[in-house]
Amino acid sequence: MPWYIKTEQFRGPAQDMREHLAAHRRWVRQQRQQGQVMVSGYLVDGHGQPGGGGLLILQADTYGAALALVQQDPMILSGCVDWRLQGWTPVVGDLSLLPQQSLL
After folding, report:
1. In the prediction, which pLDDT does 77 show?
2. What is the rounded distance in angstroms from the CA atom of residue 24 to the CA atom of residue 57?
3. Which alpha helices (DSSP H) does 1-104 contain, by range?
4. Which residues does UniProt call coiled coil (predicted)?
5. Cα-atom radius of gyration of the chain, to the nearest Å?
6. Average pLDDT of the segment spanning 83-104
7. 26 and 103 Cβ atoms separated by less than 8 Å
8. Range of the domain at 18
């Protein structure tokens, strides 16, 4: 199944988005519990500090299916991020996802 990556950049300070970030984490957990292959996290700067954005990696049958799914993300629905969805084709190496219970 194809891979897709959603990158996002916060439109404001992270502390102003706590409610939306919490809703996003709940949404990702729910998607994973329903069998969706998905990993989410935040981007950090060179000092390990949150850098004002995030990354979501997921599998979907088509770009349209991936787009329909990420458009349900509370971070997008809230309008608090600029985002981009792209297909991703791994070429070298294997992608091993962490066990579901260790994420979020």
Report:
1. 96
2. 14
3. 18-33, 63-70, 74-77
4. none
5. 14
6. 72
7. no
8. 11-44+71-84
pTM score of the predicted model: 0.85
Contacts of 36 (CB under 8 A, 6+ apart): 58, 59, 69
Total residue count of the chain as it appears in this document: 104
pLDDT at 65: 98
What's the total number of domains in the chain?
Answer: 1
* Residue listed under structure tokens 């329903």: 34
Cβ neighbours around 24 below 10 Å, total: 24
Q: For residue 27, is it within any domain?
A: yes
Tokens coding 44: 């950090």
Give the mean pLDDT of the chain. 88
> Alpha-carbon distance 54 to 50, whole Å?
9
User: What residue has token string 């458009």?
Assistant: 71
